[in-house]
Amino acid sequence: MKRETISNCTRILLLLWIIWATGCAATPTPYLHEGITPTPPDTLPELVAVLSLPDVEARLGAMTVLGRMGSEAEVAVPALVENLEYPTTEVRIRAAWALGMIGPTAQSAVPALIEVLLDDSFGYARAEAAVALGEIGDLSAVPALAQGLNDEDLRVQIRSAEAMMQLVPQLRSLSEVDAPKGYTLDKSGTPMIVTTLREWWKNEGQDQDWGTMMMTPTPLPVIP
Predict the structure, then answer these.
(1) In this predicted structure, what is the pLDDT of residue 178?
(2) What is the pLDDT of residues 63-93, one digit of tens each?
(3) I need a labelling partner for 199 at 20 to 30 A (CA). Which of 46, 87, 100, 151 fits?
(4) DSSP per position, 166-210
(5) Minimal CA–CA distance to 162: which of 114, 212, 196?
(6) pLDDT digits (tens, 9 = 90+) for 24-33
(7) What's the whole-model pTM score?
(8) 94, 86 Cβ separation under 8 angstroms
(9) Which residues contact 206 (CB under 8 A, 6 or more apart)?
């Protein structure tokens, strides 16, 4: 079914399903549980179609469900990339989040996410783009993340540093990164994780050829 021909009835059924599904955070693929969820027509295609509707809440709900589907939602990547340019900030943030949740199969979104990281006017969107780049695992994003270390927003600096650690595991051997909770401040008030990676990039990282290598990102350790 083409996006522009979705019937009102279909939209209502799908929105009801999204409302139910987004309330079930522990269920990554709620559509698999027969007899529990309302039945949306053509589940995945319809979810992708919602990403082009004018209703912002519908888009956000669809993105939440798609993100929880993980790699199963790979087909939604192009539509999610389009939403990275949507005027509403929350839509851009949710689109970046969903792409990160889809993971390595969303590699085609890397250039658009880099653009968000470097150019979006809203700090939360830039930070979420950094997170997504770390989750997708494309090493070609490292130079852009290194630029994120100098972002005016501290959240973007930290998320960029975390993503770099995720993409380049040897960075975790730096003693300064192992400080309590990883964010002890230096004399200038900057988290050591950021200061350390800035120095690493200046002295070593920028001279490496990151190319277009792809790798599976290493999960960050859980900090109590």
Answers:
(1) 58
(2) 999 999 999 999 999 999 999 999 999 999 9
(3) 100
(4) HH-GGGGG-GGGGSGGG--B-TTS-BHHHHHHHHHHHHTGGGS--
(5) 196
(6) 433 333 333 3
(7) 0.77
(8) no
(9) 143, 146
